[in-house]
Design brief:
About 40% of the residues lie in helices and about 5% in strands. The protein has helices at about 5-35, 40-45, 95-100, 100-105, 115-130, 135-150, 155-160, 185-195, and strands at about 210, 225, 230-234. Strand 2 and strand 3 (about 230-234) form a beta hairpin. It is globular, with a radius of gyration of 58 Å. About 20% of the residues are buried.
Length: about 230
């Protein structure tokens, strides 16, 4: 081979070597750029806008600041107020063994004081039927009680007695002074208790009206009977 031919062949070989070397290095970098996987460390280092990565040095974990405030629920206890109103004591006398209204009145003790309701009832008996028989006094007392229970009149003895235009002895919702040291008051007070506890039947049981026998009001009511100085109706 001539000298020129050998020189040209050497140059060609050298050029091929250099070309091959450059081609290998370039393709390797491109392959690495396209195919190198992203590691989990690289993923975890990606921070969302406005947040801190979990491994950041400035990250300060905060505990929940919710505070539950509790207080014991205390139900107020109402203060107990003792009942100091005068009690109505049941009759000590036994109507079944008394035998008569007279005996029952004799066996009924006279209390030192009466409740407000019994005072109204006894006062009405005293002023309306004082001096009459025990049956007559009881009949008057039973009318007042029947009215209080009827629903057609005031629902208390005092309400019935002080109802306007019902009893002539009432003046301005007051009663005249009663002499409580005499026999008439003692009978009225005892009859009031007997009537209240329904310990003896009235001869005109269920009557709601009465008037003095000396007058004739012309009522269109059912007449029941006359007892002493009063005529009773229902």
């Amino acid at each position: 081979m001539s000298t020129k031919l050998r020189l040209a062949s050497g140059i060609a070989v050298a050029a091929m070597f250099v070309s091959t070397l450059v081609s290998v290095n370039g393709s390797g970098a491109l392959a690495q750029t396209r195919s190198a996987p992203i590691s989990s460390a690289q993923i975890s280092s990606v921070e969302a806008p406005g947040t801190l990565a979990a491994n950041s040095q400035n990250f300060e974990p905060r505990e929940s600041q919710v505070t539950f405030v509790t207080a014991p629920v205390v139900q107020p206890i109402a203060e107990t107020t003792p009942d100091i109103s005068p009690a109505i004591v049941p009759l000590a006398a036994d109507a079944a063994t008394a035998g008569s209204l007279h005996s029952l009145v004799a066996d009924t003790p006279l209390p030192e004081s009466l409740s407000g309701e019994l005072s109204c009832l006894a006062g009405a008996i005293y002023f309306e039927a004082k001096g009459e028989s025990l049956a007559g006094q009881l009949a008057v007392g039973k009318v007042i009680i029947a009215r209080a229970k009827s629903g057609r009149f005031p629902a208390s003895y005092c309400g019935v007695v002080y109802q306007p235009s019902q009893f002539s002895f009432v003046r301005g919702r007051t009663m005249p002074t009663i002499n409580k040291s005499g026999r008439a008051w003692a009978e009225a007070a005892k009859i009031a208790q007997i009537a209240h506890f329904d310990a003896w039947d009235s001869p005109v049981e269920g009557a709601l009206f009465f008037h003095a026998a000396r007058v004739s009001p012309g009522w269109r009511l059912t007449r029941m009977a006359r007892v002493d100085n009063h005529v009773f109706y229902r």
